[in-house]
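Sanity check record (used in CI):
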Amino acid sequence: MEEVDRPWAPPIWAPDTLNYRKFFNASVSGDMQAMQEALASGEINVNACPKWEDWEGETALHRAAECGHLELVQLLISHGADIDRRDVSPVGPKTALHIAAHNGHVAIVQELLQNGADVTTRGEMGGPLLNFVLWLKRSISEKDYEVIDLVLSQGGYDIHSWLMEMGGTILHQASEIGDLTLIRFLVDRGADCNYIIPTYEDDTVLHSAVMYNQIDACRLLIELGAYVTPSAFAQASCMDMVELLRPHLSQLDISTSGVLNHASEPGFVRDLLASQIVNVNDLDLRGESALLVACTHPKNIEMLEVLLEFGADLHVCGSREVLGRIFKGDTPLHRAVAFASSTAVTLLIQAGADLEARNKPGQTPLIRVAMSGENKPRTELFDVIVKGGVDVNAGDSEHNTALHHLAMQNMHIRSPRECLTVFQLLVKAGALTNLVNSQGKTCLELFSSSATFREFLDTLYP
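Expected output for Ankyrin repeat-containing protein:
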């Protein structure tokens, strides 16, 4: 049966009367007598909802289903409650069935299904019904099993329904949690271990299990026929996982998987490199080494230290390009001055990084830090690079020097005085202010757009 994600009926707002208050409050408390009295008044539309902020368009049926009041659910249905009516939650509407399924109210799920509730209707965030059963859970109860079995036994539900924001399919979710019984249960009912989610080809079920370090689940999935892919291997975070997956891949797949690039724990990286299963200078399919990635996403200095200890190539050139942030031909030092700390930059320089290296646009690391779009130009980085003996007058392919780029970034910097400090630092180190770029402009002409700088330059160059 085709999944349903159609427009839903607008809310019917209830007037704020005593009978309606009694009606809605009874749906939460479970007070059958109060509910019957409210209904007997003849005033109540069972599909109406209060304008109370925390209800978000929920009807009495939604709340009774959430609170587990089976008899009230039955009463409301007998009085014409719309079983598939959705609320108006800002994160996406859901039905009483979604709510009951998530809360493990088996009897209510069964009651709703027997009365024709649509299992294909998508709910919050556009999520499929069974995704709600496991949503945000790290363990699975007996009630969850019963709800899943009820829905699948009903027929018409696509077991491969998915939403990436909820982990993928329900088999993806079960693999993240690592519940072996549920994995077998779902596979026995037709779930495919190798189902490919459209546009998310790398996010297989095994990929999810590896990412959450569920070794037993990975072992079971492989037994059930799941393919081990390089992208799944890349998510490994311990040597036990590496040893489990390794026999199913070629050495080329392992080397280009990017497992080092994805790793976040220095201890694991050390163990992996010591095992010689991978090489510290392996490049992933994007042409990125672990050192390039570590300098682009610097989470800790220890990771850099481990990579350098094992001989990471300081002169490797990246092939990625992200407009205005990452350039083709960037070396680790280019990345570090743009994204990392002065400590990381110092480590690279001490290890022998080339201060005069140029990326494809001809930028040196000094020019690269001058191009920084941060709120301030990070004086400490300039200081570290200048002390390393860099050519402060080097220009890029457009003949823009570090001073030219500093001037061009000055209009975006909230701290012009910080920019003045860097200007003085570079000039003191020998940077020339009369060099012209390919447009015939000196850095002083570019700086002239800043009133603060004009005032400073007038005193420096009367």
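The chain is about 50% helix and 0% strand. If this sentence no longer matches the regenerated tokens, the check is flagged for review.
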